[in-house]
Amino acid sequence: MVKVGIIGFGYWGTNLVRNFNLASNCRVIAVADPRAERLIQLGRLYSHIKGYKESEELICSKDIDAVIIATPVSTHFELAKRALLQGKHVLLEKPMTSSVMEAEFLIDLAKQKGLLLMVDHTFLYTGAVAKMKQLKDLGDLGNIKYLDSTRINLGLFQPDINVLWDLAPHDISILNYIIDEKPHSVNATGITHTSNDIENIAYLTINYNSGFIAHFSCSWTSPVKLRTMLIGGDQKMILYNDLEPTEKVKVYDSGYNHSKDQDKKKILVDYRTGDIHVPKLNTNEALLEMANDFVSCILEGKEPKSSSKIGLEVVKILEASDKSIKHSGREVILDIQSEEIHQSSNLLTN
Amino acid sequence: MVKVGIIGFGYWGTNLVRNFNLASNCRVIAVADPRAERLIQLGRLYSHIKGYKESEELICSKDIDAVIIATPVSTHFELAKRALLQGKHVLLEKPMTSSVMEAEFLIDLAKQKGLLLMVDHTFLYTGAVAKMKQLKDLGDLGNIKYLDSTRINLGLFQPDINVLWDLAPHDISILNYIIDEKPHSVNATGITHTSNDIENIAYLTINYNSGFIAHFSCSWTSPVKLRTMLIGGDQKMILYNDLEPTEKVKVYDSGYNHSKDQDKKKILVDYRTGDIHVPKLNTNEALLEMANDFVSCILEGKEPKSSSKIGLEVVKILEASDKSIKHSGREVILDIQSEEIHQSSNLLTN
Amino acid sequence: MVKVGIIGFGYWGTNLVRNFNLASNCRVIAVADPRAERLIQLGRLYSHIKGYKESEELICSKDIDAVIIATPVSTHFELAKRALLQGKHVLLEKPMTSSVMEAEFLIDLAKQKGLLLMVDHTFLYTGAVAKMKQLKDLGDLGNIKYLDSTRINLGLFQPDINVLWDLAPHDISILNYIIDEKPHSVNATGITHTSNDIENIAYLTINYNSGFIAHFSCSWTSPVKLRTMLIGGDQKMILYNDLEPTEKVKVYDSGYNHSKDQDKKKILVDYRTGDIHVPKLNTNEALLEMANDFVSCILEGKEPKSSSKIGLEVVKILEASDKSIKHSGREVILDIQSEEIHQSSNLLTN
Amino acid sequence: MVKVGIIGFGYWGTNLVRNFNLASNCRVIAVADPRAERLIQLGRLYSHIKGYKESEELICSKDIDAVIIATPVSTHFELAKRALLQGKHVLLEKPMTSSVMEAEFLIDLAKQKGLLLMVDHTFLYTGAVAKMKQLKDLGDLGNIKYLDSTRINLGLFQPDINVLWDLAPHDISILNYIIDEKPHSVNATGITHTSNDIENIAYLTINYNSGFIAHFSCSWTSPVKLRTMLIGGDQKMILYNDLEPTEKVKVYDSGYNHSKDQDKKKILVDYRTGDIHVPKLNTNEALLEMANDFVSCILEGKEPKSSSKIGLEVVKILEASDKSIKHSGREVILDIQSEEIHQSSNLLTN
Questions:
Q1: Which of B 261-320 lie inside 8 A of C, CB atoms?
Q2: In chain B, which residues have their Cβ closer than 8 Å to the Cβ of A238?
Q3: Which pLDDT tens digit goes with each residue over A25-70?
Q4: How many CA atoms does the CB half-sphere of C171 hold within 13 Å?
Q5: Do the Cβ atoms of B301 and B93 come closer than 8 Å?
Q6: Separation between Cα atoms, residue C78 and residue C97, nearest integer Å
Q7: Contact residues on chain D for B47, CB-CB shorter than 8 A
């Protein structure tokens, strides 16, 4: 039995409490939130769960084995560090941290302490993503050439992070989960339409040495809500529309081949369009599957599907995208990024 | 009565003959195409139209007032130059030319000769674009913040131009027609999945000094066909879906305002979502409207809606996008581009 | 403060408890369900609500002012009768009863006792239906000519009532709420594909003296889920798609006029298609609005929106549809139906 | 080489000329239309085709082997009879004739004369219908339980036939082509909103002895255009949406089984929802395939896919639907209908 405490009882925290209550071998013991009205609401809904005003009290509680952190990103590092130092397993909401340095520091600390550090990239637990991963692993798609994601809607401007940090983690985690190749570099452009410097529209391209390319379009200012992803192989292609009630994943038996016409020095491209297949998907609630993965990985010492490694890769790309936006869209090589890791050992003394 | 000759009797040339036949004050006199089977087909369909194997003969024909050029882009400049030198009005298919230098040379030459030089950006003559232009000019949209275009499908790899030169001219011409502000710079990234160097997927961002941003996503390798454009103002927003049979333009009474919360140093953003309006559109055939514009501008000495100025602006952006792609997505300032204009006077002697 | 007891803690009963808990001036005191596992689940979720195995105990409880009946239709009459006789206000799930006689008996009894008898036709409390009612009342639609409803999906065969009794009450209640004219007659056809006599596909036409016509298509065996309704006036027409997340109601500025060409003895029909308007709708939860209506009508002695009168009209049409199906689709006049009412006084002695 | 003459050069006649021009082993020799402006248009488009003002001249022309009749339904019988008597093969537009008697008379006459009599139910030549027929014939659907068709739009009120005679022939011909069982009876209801007696909205149910049921919903007064058909088997189900550009036929691996629970005397129904398959369809133009079928059946003495037998079955159902509408929706048995056949011998002397 894993006894968990949850820091942050806002919209997402409420979902977390509900699902960890339903998870196997797990009990929600405590919730911390500085807002009095949230604790009152907690008491009304779950009279048996202890409410703390101070997250520090929850972190230090002897009754708790694991801490779940559902607070603004800027607070993730400090809360997770303290929890790990108190010997607690930690689940962080996405994105994992505000910087690569912080993420790598936490990974090192968890390893050193023998504790589980996991990041909640919920989409990895959906039936749609499981099916796309399976199709890729079976080789049905052929050589994968591109991934193109659009995640736009109206509203929910975040006060502390830009639209890429807010919306792209979902799609970048899916990319990292499905595609094995290491990204080479990123280009990003964006714009802010408010008087702060937080982009509300941004575009991100991730470049790979093999010729695979990934592109992400994110906006808080679209009149329509879209959540679509195209994954194109040379054998088959996928359209993933998360807003479709039942036909979320469509597999197109479409592809193309090219050959060189030696005389005319032209590229000849052959098309093939065929049947479309819409597989039935597992419809279990993804958040509950994530909660069960967290609990069972603690109990069995396994690596979770939504690992801190994927969490780190997401932060690496987001950090590089910030740099590219600041430099007017120029290419930022990701290997150079990772050399900054070695400076992270200083953070513990902060 | 304007007597026209059409060079190129492929897919688009066939549409041009049909529509110029229907246009007022106009007669199609001749068609040139080097392919024997195309001239046979011409004879079967239109026994009264003269067919030429050599475009030069058509250009030099005394019976012709205007030459319409529907050939590969790389041939546009030479054919248009010769036609203008022969005193013919010229209509060029999009994109106008392969380079800014060529476009500016032709514009100068037409001006010098007192002839009409027009570019066929057909979309400017659709009911959908007319309605969007009207909504913008009436101020209904408020301050326009972004334009986001997606034009993707499977197939039709061009052998001589990349996917941006092939697909983006439609959307860039709409951008130029609706938005008055001069673009400041472009970023573009792309990838080729064939063994030539012609990108089949590419992304283009156009940056403006006011904070307006335009983004274009183009692909020849999507399993689904999409032709959508979002135009967002702070008062209203438009979703333009060219593939919708009747509801092509949707106007969302949605917007947002932001203000600074002085104490908390936060940006407060207010949302507003309201009714959606789907205006009835003029459903006249755009190509016929374009043909009538060409003919009446010749007869009345007017400037056409789809002017060579817009044609030039489109080529400027495409040329800059090539440069950005070659330099791994770095920003290319458009003003620097235009300084190359002065070298164009040498072209006549080529 | 109205103290309510709820009989039936299945899928819908759970929704009722949640919403009556949130309603103003109301407290859920007790729930009755014969299934032990449901009472255990009740205790886990709501430890303060009393659970009864016998509905009779709940009905007789002195602590309860009103009884909500969420059980199979065949049990509605007996439970409601006993509750009214015990002096409780009653809310019945749809359809109200298994027969017109039963419905009229309950209405008489409630009137005699001075108690509220209401039927939960939840759809009447949706923003979509409120908007359609408003458009009709404002005269925007002109003369209303037809209503055409499709409500089909896969599954949920009911063991005791056919597909019309199961699915059509939603749409018939909307019809009754929006249209003032009394229906004249019904035709219905249907088929059963199981070995009982319960139709799983059925079609219902309701005829009106004015020429207005309403048609309902219901199925439990469609591979796709549809919930659409067309309402056509001679000025404007509505498409109501309950499965659309935001664009549930579309108002088409389309209509037609006809006139007689006296010489040719032909009818000339003029069409008009115009703009489409998608009004923003109230998105409050309908079930909560229904709960608040029930409570405030008890407290203030008002007539609810979803009255027993509408409940009765729905049952009249369903009963007539049974008769029509039994007689191979022949027309069943509704006035003849209502003459059977006078036999209802005997029921009390049953 | 079959030499054809076409009577009627309206919208559909124009399509017929274009496609018979493209058909193999066929030449369009003449067109007849009483409207002077149509003959002028014919001359402009096809200077080599002879234009007749009088259809009688075309029918009697020695140069013509086959007559295609694209005129109002009320004229079909007389024109076809005269053409057959002149020894010409005949293609009739749908619906074949105004009555069963007329249709049977023509079938007898053609048989007697050894001539081809065919009805143009164009939809039978589409890739979508071919695929549905194939799926049914392979047994993939299991036992077919229902067919449900909706064909509605705004406009095109016919002056001489009601909406069932205008729109339902397409879907009834598909039904007849796919389903082998003989229909038992029909029920139909409808309403007219103009001052003539021609229904503009109508509903038709066709009943079969096996429990299979077919339903057709037709309207000229819908603000939206729909052309959908559901075909449900107990193994798989089809959604056919003719307005989808590419995904016209979707095959759902969904079905249900039922068994009797002997103790509880209840029917237990099991559902199964699975993958969806969207087969690639033949995209040849259906009208051209129909033209080629007509020509090759003349040359080779074969029976066409869209035979006069299917044409007759369609008229039988339409005639019965008229009778049902006139009798307020009562069931009309189709066998009784067919006894009227024997009176048809008198028609020749009319």
A1: 273-280
A2: 223
A3: 999 999 999 999 999 989 877 878 999 999 999 999 999 999 999 9
A4: 31
A5: no
A6: 10
A7: 47
CA nearest to D240, candidates D154, D169, D180, D150: D150
Tell me if D29 sits within 8 A of D5, measured CB to CB: yes
What is the C-alpha to C-alpha distance for residues D278 and C221, in angstroms, rounded to an integer? Answer: 20
Ordered by where they begin, the domains of chain A are 2-123+286-307 (3.40.50.720), 127-277 (3.30.360.10)
pLDDT digits (tens, 9 = 90+) for C67-99: 999 999 999 999 999 999 999 999 999 999 999
pLDDT, residue D123, reads 98
Question: How many beta-carbon pairs below 8 A join chains B and C?
Answer: 26
Spatial contact of A59 and A90, defined as CB atoms under 8 Å apart: no
CA dihedral B16, B17, B21, B25 (to 10 degrees): 60
Contact B238, B132 (CB under 8 A): yes
Among partner residues D253, D273, D278, which is closest to A276 by beta-carbon distance?
Answer: D278
A216 at the B interface (CB within 8 A)?
no
Is any Cβ of chain C less than 8 angstroms from the Cβ of B87?
no
Question: Residue D343: which pLDDT band, with cuts at 50, 70 and 90?
Answer: very low
Contact D243 B245 (CB under 8 A): yes
> Residue C154 and residue C223: Cα distance in Å, rounded?
6
- Burial, A185: exposed, middle or buried (Cβ in 10 Å; 0-12, 13-18, 19+)? buried
- Closest chain C CA to residue B247: C276
Would you tell me how many other CB atoms lie within 10 Å of the CB of residue A263? Answer: 6
Distance (Å) from the alpha carbon of A233 to chain D's nearest alpha carbon? 19
C residues 236-265 near D, CB within 8 Å? 237-239, 250, 252, 254, 256, 258, 260
Place of tokens 């016509």: C213
Buried b (16+ CB within 10 A) or exposed e, D150-171: bbbbbeebbeebbbbbbbbbbb
Q: Which helix (H) or strand (E) holds A5?
A: strand A2-7
Decide if C256 and D154 are in contact by the 8 Å CB cutoff: yes
Question: Cβ–Cβ contacts within 10 Å for residue C134, how many?
Answer: 12
Question: Which residue among C250, C273, C279 sits closest to B280, beta carbon to beta carbon?
Answer: C273
In chain C, what residues touch A280 (CB-CB under 8 Å)? none
Element (H, E) at C109: helix C100-113
DSSP-based three-state secondary structure for C62: coil
Provide the shortest C-alpha distance from residue C170 to chain A (in Å).
Answer: 22
E strands, B194-335, are: 201-207, 213-219, 221-233, 237-241, 249-252, 255-261, 266-272, 276-278, 332-333
Instruction: Write the residue in C205, C238, C252 that is nearest to D329 by C-beta.
Output: C205
Q: A313 to chain B, minimum CA–CA distance in Å?
A: 22
pLDDT tens-digit map of B258-269: 766 665 556 667
Instruction: Go through chain D and tell me how many residues it has.
Output: 350
- Residue C65 CB contacts under 8 Å (≥ 6 apart), including other chains: C2, C3, C4, C88, C89, C298
Interface touch B277/C278, C-beta < 8 Å: yes
Residues in chain C: 350
Q: DSSP string covering D176-232, please?
A: HHH--SPP-EEEEEEE--SSSS--SEEEEEEE-TTS-EEEEEEESEEEEEEEEEEEE
**A residues 129-158 lying closer than 8 A (beta carbon) to B:** 145-146, 148, 150, 154-155, 157
Amino acid of residue A84: L
Cβ <8 Å between C154 and D271: yes
Question: Taking Cα atoms as reference points, which of A266, A255, A254 lies closest to residue B161?
Answer: A266
- Dist CA A228 CA B226 (whole Å): 12
Give the ipTM. 0.91
Cα B335–Cα B72–Cα B201 angle in degrees, nearest 5: 65
Assess A205–B contact: CB distance below 8 Å, yes or no.
Answer: yes
